[in-house]
Amino acid sequence: MEKQRPTSGGYRPLSSELNDRTPFQRTNSICPSPESQLLEAVLQNNIVHVKRLLRNNPDLLNYVYTPEYNKPILLIACSDENVTAGTVQALVDAGANISTISELDQGWSALHFGAAKTDSTTLQVILKALNHPGDINVLAKGNNALHVLIKHGDSTKSGEFKRCVQLLVEEGINVNQTDNNGFSSILLAAKKGFRDVVEVILEKSPFQVDLDSHQLRNKKTARDLILSEKLYDGPLPGEVTNNNVQTDEIQVLFECLKRGNENGFLNYRNGDIERVDADDGANTLLQLSCEKGLAKAAHHLLDKGADPNRITPKNTETPIKIVAERGYYKIFKLLCEHPKTEKPFAYLLTTFLKYFENDKFPGLIDYQQCYSYLMDQLRSNSDQMSFLINQQDDSKNSPLHYAIRYSDQERIDELLDLGASLGSKNKSGVMPVHDIEPKILERHLNRCIEFDKSGKKYKEDFSVTFNYRTLIPPTSNKISNVGKDVEENLNESVMQELVAETEVIAYMSQAPEFKHLLAHPVIVTFLFMKWHKIRWIFTVNLAFYFAFFFSLVIYIFCSYANFTHTEKSSFESFLVTVSIPVLFVTFFILIFRELFQMAVFPGKYFKSFENYIELVLIFITGAIIFTNSPDENTRKPLAAISILLAAFELVLMLGQHPRFSTNVVMLRTVSYNFFKFLIWYSLLIVAFALSFYIIFSKTTVGNPPEEDGEDFFTDPGKSIFKTIVMLTGEFDASNLNFHTFPFTSIIIFSLFIFMIAIILVNLLNGLAVSDTQMIKSSAELVGHIARAQHIYYVETMLLGNILPKNMLAKFEDLFCCTSGSNWNLIVLKPLAEKACLFPRCKQFKLTAYPNKGGEISVSTSSCCFGYCNHIKLDKEAVKEINSIVRMKREESEDVRQESVCLQKLEQVLTKMSELESKIDTIMQCLPE
C-alpha cells in the first residue's frame, strides 16, 4: 500500500483516488429514496436536511452505498473533500458508528479516512468521537492513522498537513508503532523528507520517540536520515534501551510475529505470556501467528490457554479460517485437535476443494493434507455426516459444487458416497448435477445399488438396497438453541422441511446428456415409488375432469344445442337435471385449479401449451353456462369448440399416466415437428394458392352460368384454404378451369402435384414415421422422462408458495404471530407429505427383492404411510436390477482375481529374493 510521493509533486492522495468514482445520481423517480436524499444532502452539506432525514430514518446510517462507494454514509463524508466538518459532526451526533470499517478500502475506519483527507477540522471531530482512549491506535492493514496521513495525506496542504499530524500526536497516538513493513511513523516521515512532521513528532509526542530500532532496507534508521538530511535543528533524543524506557510486552510479541521471529517470540521472558488473547487492534496473537504460518508460536499460545475462536473487530476471520485459506496443515491440525475450536465445515471443505490442485510447500502449505484430515474428522461423526457434508458457504455453494469445478474425480466420488446432495442450490440456482459429468454420475448410481456380494443371487430372500440420499435436495435444519455450539445443536432434534424430491431427476430428464440415465434402476425405482405416492392425485384429478367432460357434453346435446326444438324425453330431462349442478361444481373446481397453478408458479404455468387450452376452455364453458339465450349461430360454434377442447384436454390428461404417456408423447412430438416443417414450407403453399387464384378464378360478364359445386378460387382466402385441402389428395381437378390458360395452368398444377402433393407430403409423412419409430424404440425411456416431469410438476405445485413472497412478508410484518414463510405448509402440508416419498425417513433407502417379483420394503413404514410394502416393481425394472447385480459381481470377481494374482506375484518375488541370497552365499563359499 505504501507509495513514494514527493512533497510537492503530481501524485494524488489516496483519499482523492477513493472518491474518483461515479457520483450517486438521482433517478427520474418522483420520490427519491431516503438513502439517495441523505447522500445528496451530505454531499451538498445540507446539515438541516441531514438531521431531519436521520431523525426519521436512523437506520440510514448503516446503509452501504453500492457500487458507487461501497461504504456507509459516515465513511463517505470523512473521505469526500467537499464535505465539511459540520456535516460529519451531524452524522456523529445522529449516532453514526465511528468504528465502522470499509473492507474494500483496506479496512479503513473514519479515523483513517479523516487522516487521508488532510482536513484538521474533520479529523478533530473524529478524534473527539472516539469511544476509548486506545481507539486512536486502531490499525488498518498494520497502519495507524499517522501512518495513513504520512503515506496518503495531501502534503501540498502544508498547513493542514502539519495540523493533522499535531492533532494525532497530541492525542497520544503511538509514534513508535510500526506498519507491516516494520516502519515507524517518524522513519516514514524522514524517508519522505517531511521536515514539519519530524519536528512535530519529536516536540509534541508524550512518549519517547524511538529513532534507532527500525530501519529501512538500506539499514538506515530515522536518526541517520534526520542527521543526513538535516530535518531537525534541535537535539535528538537518546537511544531507547531497557534502562530508560519500559518496553511494552505485547508490542514486543507482535513485533516478533510480524517479522517472523518465531524463536524470539517463544524465548521472550522464557515463554511466559500473561495476556495470550491480547490484540494490537487488528489481530490477536493467535490470528497473527496463523496468518504468518508460525506453527510453533500457535502451538505455544494454545498451550498457554489462548482462545482458538477469538477475533477482533478489524479481523473477523477465526484462526481456523485463516489457516484454511492459506493451507497451513500443521496449524490446521493443531486447531482441529483443540476441544474448543469451532469448525465451520462448509467453509473449510469448500476452501480446501477450491485450492486442492494448488502447489504444495513441504512442511508448510498442503491443501490436500488439510482436506484429508478434515474428511477423517467428518467420518468420525457419522451420525451427522449427511448434514455436515451438505452445509453451504455464503454463496450457498456446497462442497460438491467446488469438488466438481476445481477438484478431481476421486474427490467427487468421495463426497457423493458420503451423501453430498446433487440438488443443493446456490444463490444462482445452480445445482451440482448441472456440472457433473454423465459418466461420473452413472458410476455413482451404480454404487447406490447395495447388496450382499457373497450371498446367493437366486435365493428368495436375496435383497437389493437402493440409496437415494444424493438425489434428494438437502433439507433446512432449524436448530432450537442458537446459543450452543454446533456439535451440541446437531445432537438435538431438528425439524426437517419437505423438499422437491424429484428436482434432480427432472433436470436430468431435460438435459440430453443425462436422459439415458433415467433408465437406470435407481432412477426407475425412485420414479416408480413416487408415482405410487402421487397417483391418488392423478386419480382424483382425472375423476373430476371426467365428470366435467361428460356433464358438459350431456348439457350441450340435451339442452344447450337442442336445435330441433323438440320436446325432451323424461330421460333427457333427467340427464339435464343431473348434468347442470355437476357442470357448475366441476367448472368452478377447474377455475380454482388453474388459479392455484397460476399463483404458485406463474412463469411455468404460462409456458405450457396445455394450460392455454384449459384457459380457452374455461372462457368458452363460462359463455355456454352464463350467456342468456344466445342465438343459434353463437351456440353452434361455442358447443363445437368446447367439446373439441375438452376432448383434447382429456387426452393430454390421460397421457400423464405411465401406461399412456408414450402415446401422448408421440402425438405431441409428431404434431410439433409436422407443423414446424409445414410452416417452413408455407411460403410455397401460399405461393401456389395465389397462383391458383389468378389462373383458375372465373371472370364472367353478366350473369355467371350456374354450375354444380362451389368455386374456391373466387378470392385469395378461399384459394389458400382449397390449396391446404388439396394437400390431402383431394384435388377435384374436374372442376378446375384449365381452358383459359391451358399451358400455364397445367404447368403450375403439375408442379404443385409433384412438389407439394408428392414430395412435401411424403416428406412430412416420413418425418412423422421416423419420429414415431424413434419414440417407440425408446418407449421405456420416453415414459420415464414423461413420468419424471409430471411428478416434479405436481411436487412444485404442492410445495410452492400460494401467495407471493412479498405478500407473505407483509403478513409477517403485520401479524408477528404468523410465520409467512410457513403459511403454505399450513395449508398444503398434509397433501405435500402424501406426495413426498421421504418426509420423515432420514435413511433415504429402499429395499427390493428381485426373486419375489420385485417386492418393495422400506425401513420405516411411516415414510410411505404403509403403502410401500405392498408394491412390486415391474418386470423391466427387475431385469435391470439383475443386470446391475451381475455386472457388480463380475467387477468384484475381477478385483478379487487381481488381488490373488498380486499376492502370488509377491510370493514369487520373495522366493526369488531368497534364492538370490542363497546363491550369493554359495558363491562366497566357493574358492577363487
UniProtKB/TrEMBL annotation:
Has the keyword Transport been applied to this entry? yes
Q: Which SMART domains match?
A: ANK
Q: By what name is this protein known?
A: Ion transport domain-containing protein
For this UniProt entry, what's an example GO CC term? cation channel complex
Q: Which keywords has UniProt assigned to this entry?
A: ANK repeat, Ion channel, Ion transport, Membrane, Repeat, Sensory transduction, Transmembrane, Transmembrane helix, Transport
Q: What is its main location?
A: membrane
Q: Which residues cross the membrane?
A: 536-562, 574-596, 608-626, 638-656, 677-696, 741-764
| Domain Ion transport residues, every copy | 544-779
Spans annotated as Disordered:
1-29
Origin organism is Acanthoscelides obtectus (Bean weevil)
- According to its UniProt record, where is this protein located? Membrane
